[in-house]
Structures are given as structure tokens and as C-alpha cells.
Amino acid sequence: MTDIPSSLRASLTESDFCLYTTEEVAVQSDSDGTIKLLLRLFDENVVECVLLHDKSDGLTACLSSQSGCAMGCRFCRTGTLKLKRSLTVNEICEQFLLLQSRAPGKIDHVVFMGMGEPFANIENVLSAIDFLHNEDGIGLSMRRITISTCGVVPGIKELTLRRVPVKLAVSLVSADDTTRSSLMPINKAYNLSTLKAALKDFQSVSGRRFTFEYCMIHGVNISDQDAFKLASFCKGLTVVVNLIPFNPCPELEFVTPSMEEINHFCRKLDELNVPYTIRISRGRGIKGACGQLAGKVNG
Ligand code: SF4
User: Fold this and answer.
1) CA separation for the pair 296, 281 (Å, rounded)
2) Fold observed for domain 19-286
3) Bridge partner list, 240
């Protein structure tokens, strides 16, 4: 490169620069087009990110915000790891770039649904979103970026205050305080009424519909009573419920509901006029589906 000063050329030749601080240690591909990368960080911690290929949504990068997670949701494999540490901005952005280098086309959606709770690392996540959105970075529309939280109310309030126009997904899992607290320790700090108040404020400012993620677990949260409670919790909010049948993991005690149970719960939601979708889990074969990330190769 003769168009840069010779002193800089000399410095680049002599110095030990590295463009990426993360290193790919394993790549797994599933028959449905899902690709999962296991990355080693500079301090030997590991993190996973996933490329999802969906006919309707195109290519989605599912990024991690932390190595491990402190939130301890009982239906999530990452929750069994405990928190190692939060990721830096570049460690988050590198996940996107590494997935893009393996993608068959341009990645058009980003979801922060990988390892970690994004609002527990909010500044770095928002800086990474700047890079993803900025024209000098990736140039993704904010409408194509989703933050998914387990219900960290201060994070929702911060998003509301800063008017960051990303999409929001909340892992609800149950609209009953006792059940939710038993599955998600965060509910003891911010119960359902506190969560709903924060979501109402978010919606009044953003004007945006958001999503409730509802991990369906056999014998736990899919009774008729659970459907009634969910319908009641959704009242006053413009929301769509994303039903995700529990993805089995050897470390977790829960059971995936049968198709009959799933259909029955859906019929109840139809009767109660609750808008919902069902997420066909991609990447199950390589443990890259929702709740299955554990920072391991072949397992
Ligand atoms: S669901 Fe999200 S917040 Fe809960 S333990 Fe798993 S990664 Fe952490």
C-alpha cells in the first residue's frame, strides 16, 4: 500500500496487530441450514453464536452478549454455566462478522438471544447495535435488530428512556408469579406487575408491538389455567406470543410437550384471542436452538 506514509507502513510491518480477538474453535452445521460457531475469547472463555436460515425471514445472526449467564433460568442450558464475563463490543461485533463470512448471502436480521442477558451488558450491546445499524458499519435497520431479555426491568426502562428503536422480546414463560419465580429467579426481583408496568411505558413511547417468548414445558405452564393467565397478562399490551416448545437438553429436567398438548394450548389461545406464533426450532440437531447453547463442542 504505497498510498500510506512509509512510517506507518514500517510500523505495520514491525508490530504485531490482530484484526480479530476471537478465534473459531468449532463449526457445526445442521441439515436445516443452521450454522453454530464456538469461539474462544482472548482469555480462554468461550461463547457461541448461531446463523439461522429461515425461508420467510432470510438469514438471522443470533449473537451472545455474555460468556455464560448469571440469570439461572431453569429451562435454559446457558443458565447452568453461571456467568464467566460480559463480552466487549468487539467480541459481540466479531460474532456477526464471522457468521457473515460463512453465510450464503447478506445477513438481514440480528437477535440478541444467544448466551447471556443483554441488559446485564447494556452499554456494550448498545454500542454493538450502533455498529450494526450505522451506515459505516453494517447498515442494518433497527427494525431488524431484536434484544431479548428475561425481564430485567431497569434495562427495559433504559431502552425506553434512550428511545432506542430496536425490537424487544421478553422471555415470559409463565404469567403466574409463583410458577415464573420457580423457573426464572429474575421474577423475584421484578415480578409480573412490575414487568408489565415497564412494558406499558416502553410501548407508549416506542409505539411498537413486542414479543413474549413462551417456552412451552410439559406439565409446567401449558394448562388451560396458564392460557387464561397469559391472556389476562397480555391485556392492554400490543404483543404477539411466540410459543417455543422446550428444546431438550441432557442437563435439564424438563420435557417437551406432545403435539397434542401444543395444539390444545393453541386452541385455548385462539378462544381467548391471544395472537401467537409457533417457533419451529432450527438447529436442534447441533444444539443451536433456543436455550441449548452451552459453549461445548459436540454436545
Ligand atoms: S434464558 Fe437468557 S437470561 Fe435466562 S439463563 Fe438463558 S441466557 Fe440467561
Assistant:
1) 19
2) TIM Barrel (3.20.20)
3) 211
Q: What is the mean pLDDT of the chain?
A: 92
Q: Where along the chain do its domains lie?
A: 19-286
> Residue 91 catalytic?
no
Helix (H, G, I), strand (E, B) or coil at 112: strand
Residue type, 77: R
Instruction: Determine the Cα–Cα distance for residues 92 and 96; give it in Å rounded to an integer.
Output: 7
Cα of 76 from ligand 1 centre, angstroms? 6
Residue 215 annotated among the catalytic residues of the structure: no
Beta-sheet pairing, 276-278 with 46-54: unpaired
* Residue 287, pLDDT score: 66
**Which residues is 29 bridged to in the sheet?**
35
Per annotation, catalytic residue among 14, 23, 48, 271 = 48
Write a three-state SS string for 92-121: HHHHHHHHHHHCCCCCCEEEECCCCCHHHH
What element of type H or E holds 147? strand 145-149
User: 171, 183, 214, 254: which to mutate for ligand 1, most atoms within 8 A of CB?
Assistant: 171
pLDDT band at 283 (very low <50, low <70, confident <90, very high): low
The pTM for the full model equals 0.90
Distances (CA, A) of 226 to 29, 42, 222, 239, 266: 36, 45, 6, 17, 12
Whether 69 lines ligand 1, by a CB cut-off of 6 Å, is yes
Phi, psi of 45 (to 5 degrees): -65, 160
**Count of CB atoms situated within 10 Å of the CB of 71:** 22
* pLDDT at residue 298, as a whole number: 46
